[in-house]
Amino acid sequence: MDEFCAFNHKILEAKWHEAAGKWHLLVESGGRTFVDVCDIFINAGGVLDNWKWPDISGIETFKGKLVHSADWDPKYDFTDKSVAVIGIGSSGIQILPHVARQAKTTTLFARSPTWITPSVGISEPGQDDPEVDEAMNYAQKELEKFQKDPEYLRGHRVKLQDGRIQGFKLFMQGSEAQKEALAMFAESMRQRLGNSEKGRRIAEQLIPKFPVGCRRLTPGQGFLEALLEDNVSMEWKNLDRITERGILTTDGRLIECDAIVCATGFDNSFRPRFPTIGRDGTELAKKWEESPEAYFGITVAQMPNYFMFIGPNSPIANGSLVQAIQITGIYIAKCIQKIQRQFIKSMSVRQQAQDDFNEHCRTFLADTVFSGNCSSWYKQGDIDGKVVAIYCGSSYHFIESLKEPRWEDYEFAYVGDVRPNRFAYLGNGITLGEAQGKSVGATQTLNFEEYWNLFNSPAING
């Protein structure tokens, strides 16, 4: 793939040119800027890709080591240091045990309860599952068996995916699965925190009142156990500001630090990191200032020939994201095929179709735990905000929904002043494979199921 990739390039601006039906990209590389032009613009930058410092007064005055979880300094040695960790999201939960093992003292600053799951899934590994260690890493013999026996690996993956899909039921408010998860997770956390005075105090502060899944679920191996260590303490909702020497609490105490770890997350606004200007001068960042909205997380009204991976209301917490990304790629490929074959200059999702999709998402998500009374990046940190990050169904539901594009939801403009015959793409009556002298006889021996799969492939005429 290297020949198709340009590394060390940064897009400064993307602008749609209506007359030409093309995107003009202002690009910087090696100290120079230039304009590149494309018919199709795919933004695969993701959402949790732009880390940011927390908005805490005085952070710039700190004289010790300041590090962000997404900009880690592997050379820094925490041994015998006094360390503060700010944040109790997924990053903070994973970082704390490792820092605490090295540091002289570790202080965790948290402001929201959170659920710590028993293991990677919603249950402990069973007797017939592959062997794993305490950190849930596969044993070497299992890795070798995966490599030698693809069917064994596939069977394990199927079991994992079935479990994730079944687990989606717990995200429905009031469901039996949600009630069972509440009881199981709370009991698991209490058992791991123990019956000491410190353990009971942490349990009272940390175990949420909101539903399981309202915030991102994190296994957090070793996190609860680290909180019980004598060299670890937790400060709850009382960070006032940062000084040269450490962190000042709201009750006036100065907690001196050699290092501060900011596990405070990313810009989750979904806004692109560079100006993206579509039809009629519509700038996507401004369009999404109040609330990011898209069509199945892939296309946006007024943004012709523009596609995204993991846009607003994608299946981020709905099951396996890998398969969701794969179907997104296939969906985009089908759109590109249509553009190439049918003399299409531009395709843009209709505003009404986008609005209807978002209305359905809001209605569905109102009955899920994602709309619960917690502060979550799914709602851009607003407890009462709209859920903008989560799809309205399971990840498998997302895959099924995208198998066949709804072309009626799009507006098309065609090349030239006069639209050509709609069937002109049929060409000279033979496929590309036939023209290249490839064997196509196998297609004459397929059964119905194989034919069905063939005609659902994005590369049928390849």
From TrEMBL:
It comes from the Eukaryota. Transmembrane segments: none annotated. The keyword NAD does not apply. GO terms for molecular function: flavin adenine dinucleotide binding; N,N-dimethylaniline monooxygenase activity; NADP binding. Keywords: FAD, Flavoprotein, Oxidoreductase. Belongs to the FAD-binding monooxygenase family. This is Uncharacterized protein. It comes from Vermiconidia calcicola.
